[in-house]
Every structure is written in structure tokens, then in C-alpha cells.
Design goal:
By secondary structure, the chain is mainly alpha-helical. The protein has six helices and two strands; from the N terminus they run H-E-H-E-H-H-H-H. It is about 55% helix and about 5% strand. The protein is globular and about 50 Å long. It starts with a helix and ends in a 7-residue tail after the last helix.
């Protein structure tokens, strides 16, 4: 995912490098942290709630992930990780509200295609229904 995002960033000719990578605990692994050590990466290793500063069930990071837990435990790390929910979660909530929480297809390729189609329809609807700015 990181390599694809970097490729898309370069293909879009966006200036500079990506400043911060934020990911939930589904992406946490010692192997990933080792392979991506050169990136400004913050990944939840205990639970997303704990990283955002809320009470959580799992308080201790697994072995091999304690360095990431230490980075997230700083005030800066917590503040940066809180940005993830504001960036990512509203899109999921809007798609779930409009299309429901269940997918119609099974299998990795079919699910990938369906999610991309739902996201595209969602974004097109926003563009079509967005009122034009009026000049004053």
C-alpha cells in the first residue's frame, strides 16, 4: 500500500514527500516497521482507541512493536494519530450510511472492485451535488 501510494503521489506530480503515514492496527507488524523504518510512520499497535488517548482493552504492544508504541505514546504522536480518525473515518461512515455495511461480492478482486466502485459513486455524488461557489 505504501509503495502504491508513493507511486500515485509521484504520478500526480505532487510537490514534496508525504509528511506522515497513519495506519490502524491492522497494518501493525514488526516486519512492516522494519521495512518502512525510513518513513514518518505511525501505526496503532495496541488499539486505535488507546493511540487516540481513549480507554482501550489491549494496553501493551506485542514484542517487536514496542518502538512504535513509544513513538505513539508521546504527546506529538498522540496528536498526529488523532488526525487519522478525522481524515479516514468520515468517508467510511458516509459510504456505510448510503450503501450499508455489507458487500454483494466475495473474493479479494471482487470486493476490491466493489469498494472502489462505491467510493467512486460516493465521490461523484459529492461533485454533482456540491453547490457552485458564487463570486461576491
Amino acid at each position: 500500500m505504501v509503495k502504491k501510494t508513493q507511486h500515485n503521489h509521484q504520478a500526480a506530480r505532487l510537490p514534496g514527500d508525504i509528511q506522515l503515514w497513519l495506519a490502524d492496527s491492522g497494518y501493525a507488524s514488526a516486519a512492516s516497521f522494519e521495512a518502512l523504518a525510513d518513513l514518518p510512520l505511525l501505526v496503532s499497535v495496541t488499539s486505535d482507541a488507546d493511540q487516540a488517548g481513549f480507554p482501550a482493552k489491549r494496553q501493551q504492544a506485542p514484542a517487536g512493536q514496542r518502538d512504535m508504541a513509544a513513538r505513539l505514546a508521546t504527546p506529538t504522536g498522540r496528536a498526529q494519530y488523532r488526525q487519522r480518525s478525522a481524515l479516514v473515518e468520515p468517508g467510511f461512515a458516509q459510504i456505510f450510511q448510503r450503501f450499508g455495511r455489507h458487500l454483494n461480492y466475495r473474493g479479494r478482486q471482487a470486493v476490491d472492485a466493489e469498494i472502489k466502485l462505491l467510493g467512486t459513486v460516493h465521490n461523484l455524488n459529492k461533485l454533482i451535488n456540491h453547490p457552485p461557489k458564487t463570486r461576491s
